[in-house]
């Protein structure tokens, strides 16, 4: 049955609230939002683990349909699902997984009691990991449960990586990440809360140390309120406390030897410049930043970065490397250690290149998707509305009628990842319920005020594209002189949209950014973005980036080719040139996704380029 076409209800900011119980403001300069209280439901943990209540008091129970779908695991949401699917394209990689406290598992039976209401809000950094069941679902459920009593707020997340296990290697790979929180719990109280959440999600108290676990949560650092960074280092994050008891040690005693901890912490350090004035996160014992500790670890490993790898490591498949991943519904993962080709499937009568070719027949459109997969597409992007320059809005009902049947048919034929290219939350929700995996919004969530909350409620990845205005007005908004030029301007606006998405409940590890080639960019602006991929990537905290230069007007202007379908050669040149201008300094595992019409041509070009780049140097 076709999903309801009613507009998505606004979703509260979930676990990413910047306002605590009773409206206590965070120190982060963010707009106020209603408090969110999340209450564990211990009696029905297998199917609806968390009940969400919005308002000033837990007694004011509101359960919108979007929340209930999330609780029951519907629509690819965060809630636990008793049956998880395994993707055919999820490859073995690995993860480390810490041990939770600092000295093993001595206090798994603690009750996780609530901290004193008079204790000030303090920042802390946690490592999170899982290597059993739906790993991303376990991590997401754990964060929701952690924030359930109103005394913990999740501020930011790292990216997620599949990493090989340490210490006990005969076990499945781990999914690992790091989280920045604020809490009124004292350190030991926070530890006990973590143990309580681990137990609630099925971790065995007497399990093998460093062995398999559904969820693992470690305290890495805990803010020392007596240290504000000092005048000598104004960019330093306030140092962590240093403590050691039988129950807890802070900083975590093994964090400096764990790549699967330092890499996510470096993510948080790199992304902090847009929200926290460029502060770095300093280890209070080693007096080094997270990037510095990771670099030291690389040197101790003989100079080979276990994240990015050297050329020979990439060529050999990188089985011992951490691999950044994008979690998808049904427990699947899209691996981001290689260039991914996104095949374009427009089911519109008026798209600038192939409009009308696949809009008449659902079966023909689905077969086109299968051909794109055969040609090398790793994801299919289905769009029911043209956003070419000057295009008029399409009614939501018409967009639904075009896209949803095609998505359903593709999903019946294949488990290939599918993204829905839409600016509307009602279309996004219907598409995910029909079998799509990713929401690709060319407006970056600005067109529909309900889009970010809708995506957050479904727990699926979002591609956040940069655009100013709308398809009718965007080309008149291509002046970036007042914001430092097109690269800096686009990066700044993209990161603000990313921050808005994170605040709405879409964690950083579910985000991909797109600078929007051809959208509110003039000829020189498009070329500048492709020429400065590295600068853009660094300015955006090494987020996964999607580029869509395929058959765009700037290629026609250069080549004189007026027929968009004859611009594939120019498309390949634009892609290879931008990839060649991307340096590989060994300290990043960011990914490029290429959205193209001619998948076969681009796939061949990328394979040859990668083989040459990864060839042995003499």
UniProtKB/TrEMBL annotation:
In the C-terminal section; belongs to the DHPS family. It catalyses: (7,8-dihydropterin-6-yl)methyl diphosphate + 4-aminobenzoate = 7,8-dihydropteroate + diphosphate; 6-hydroxymethyl-7,8-dihydropterin + ATP = (7,8-dihydropterin-6-yl)methyl diphosphate + AMP + H(+). InterPro entries: DHP_synth-like (IPR045031), DHP_synth_dom (IPR006390), Dihydropteroate_synth-like_sf (IPR011005), Hppk (IPR000550), Hppk_sf (IPR035907), Pterin-binding_dom (IPR000489). Residues 100-109 have a biased composition (Acidic residues). Residues 339-607 form the Pterin-binding domain. The lineage of its organism: Eukaryota, Sar, Stramenopiles, Ochrophyta, Bacillariophyta. This is Pterin-binding domain-containing protein. GO terms for biological process: folic acid biosynthetic process. Residues 72-116 are annotated as: Disordered. PROSITE patterns: DHPS_1 (PS00792), DHPS_2 (PS00793), PTERIN_BINDING (PS50972). Its cofactor is Mg(2+). SUPFAM superfamilies: 6-hydroxymethyl-7,8-dihydropterin pyrophosphokinase, HPPK, Dihydropteroate synthetase-like. Keywords: ATP-binding, Folate biosynthesis, Kinase, Magnesium, Metal-binding, Multifunctional enzyme, Nucleotide-binding, Transferase. Pathway: Cofactor biosynthesis; tetrahydrofolate biosynthesis; 7,8-dihydrofolate from 2-amino-4-hydroxy-6-hydroxymethyl-7,8-dihydropteridine diphosphate and 4-aminobenzoate: step 1/2; Cofactor biosynthesis; tetrahydrofolate biosynthesis; 2-amino-4-hydroxy-6-hydroxymethyl-7,8-dihydropteridine diphosphate from 7,8-dihydroneopterin triphosphate: step 4/4. GO terms for molecular function: 2-amino-4-hydroxy-6-hydroxymethyldihydropteridine diphosphokinase activity; ATP binding; dihydropteroate synthase activity; kinase activity; metal ion binding.
């Amino acid at each position: 049955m076709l999903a309801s076409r009613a507009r998505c209800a606004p979703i509260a900011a979930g676990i990413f609230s910047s306002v605590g119980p009773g409206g206590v403001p965070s120190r982060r300069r963010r707009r106020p939002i209603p408090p969110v209280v999340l209450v564990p439901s211990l009696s029905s943990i297998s199917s609806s683990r968390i009940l969400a209540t919005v308002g000033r008091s837990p007694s004011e129970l509101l359960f919108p349909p979007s929340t209930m779908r999330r609780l029951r695991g519907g629509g690819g949401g965060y809630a636990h699902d008793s049956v998880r699917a395994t993707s055919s394209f999820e490859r073995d990689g690995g993860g480390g997984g810490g041990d939770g406290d600092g000295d093993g598992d001595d206090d798994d039976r603690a009750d996780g009691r609530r901290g004193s209401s008079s204790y000030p809000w303090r920042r802390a950094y946690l490592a999170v990991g899982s290597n059993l069941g739906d790993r991303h679902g376990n991590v997401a459920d754990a964060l929701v449960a952690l924030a359930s009593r109103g005394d913990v707020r999740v501020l930011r997340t790292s990216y997620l990586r599949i990493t090989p296990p340490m210490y006990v290697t005969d076990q499945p790979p781990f999914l690992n990440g790091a989280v920045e929180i604020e809490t009124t719990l004292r350190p030991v109280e926070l530890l006990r809360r973590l143990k309580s959440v681990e137990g609630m999600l099925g971790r065995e108290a007497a399990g093998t140390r460093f062995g398999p676990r559904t969820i693992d949560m470690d305290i890495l650092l805990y803010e020392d309120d007596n240290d504000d960074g000092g005048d000598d280092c104004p960019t330093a994050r306030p140092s962590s406390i240093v403590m050691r008891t039988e129950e807890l040690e802070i900083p975590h005693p093994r964090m400096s030897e764990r790549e699967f901890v330092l890499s996510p912490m470096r993510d948080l350090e790199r992304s902090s410049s847009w929200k926290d004035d460029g502060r770095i996160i300093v280890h209070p014992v080693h007096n080094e930043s997270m990037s510095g500790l990771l670099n030291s670890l690389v040197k101790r490993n003989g100079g080979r970065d276990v994240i990015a790898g050297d050329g020979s490591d990439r060529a050999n498949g990188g089985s011992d490397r951490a691999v950044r991943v994008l979690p998808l519904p049904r427990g699947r993962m899209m691996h981001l250690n290689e260039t991914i080709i996104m095949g374009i499937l427009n089911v519109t009568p008026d798209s600038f290149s192939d409009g009308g070719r696949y809009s008449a027949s659902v079966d023909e459109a689905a077969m086109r998707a299968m051909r794109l997969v055969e040609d090398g597409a790793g994801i299919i992007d289905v769009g029911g509305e043209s956003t070419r320059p000057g295009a008029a809005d399409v009614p939501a009902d018409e967009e639904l009628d075009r896209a949803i049947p095609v998505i359903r048919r593709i999903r019946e034929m294949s488990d290939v990842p599918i993204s829905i290219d839409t600016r509307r939350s009602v279309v996004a929700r219907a598409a995910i319920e029909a079998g799509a995996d990713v929401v690709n919004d060319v407006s970056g969530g600005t067109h529909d005020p309900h889009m970010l909350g809708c995506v957050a409620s479904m727990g699926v990845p979002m591609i956040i594209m940069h655009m100013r205005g709308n398809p009718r007005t965007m080309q008149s908004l291509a002046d970036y002189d007042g914001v430092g030029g097109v690269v800096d301007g686009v990066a700044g606006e993209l990161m603000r949209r990313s921050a808005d998405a994170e605040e709405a409940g879409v964690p950083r590890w579910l985000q991909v950014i797109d600078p929007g080639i051809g959208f509110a960019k003039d000829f020189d602006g498009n070329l500048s973005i492709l020429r400065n991929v590295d600068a853009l990537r660094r300015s955006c905290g090494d987020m996964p980036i999607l580029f869509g230069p395929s058959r765009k007007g700037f290629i026609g202007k250069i080549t004189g080719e007026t027929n968009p379908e004859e611009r594939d050669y120019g498309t390949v040149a634009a892609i290879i040139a931008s990839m060649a201008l991307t340096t590989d300094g060994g300290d990043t595992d960011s990914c490029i996704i290429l959205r193209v019409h001619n998948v076969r041509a681009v796939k061949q070009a990328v394979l040859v380029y990668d083989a040459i780049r990864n060839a042995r140097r003499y």
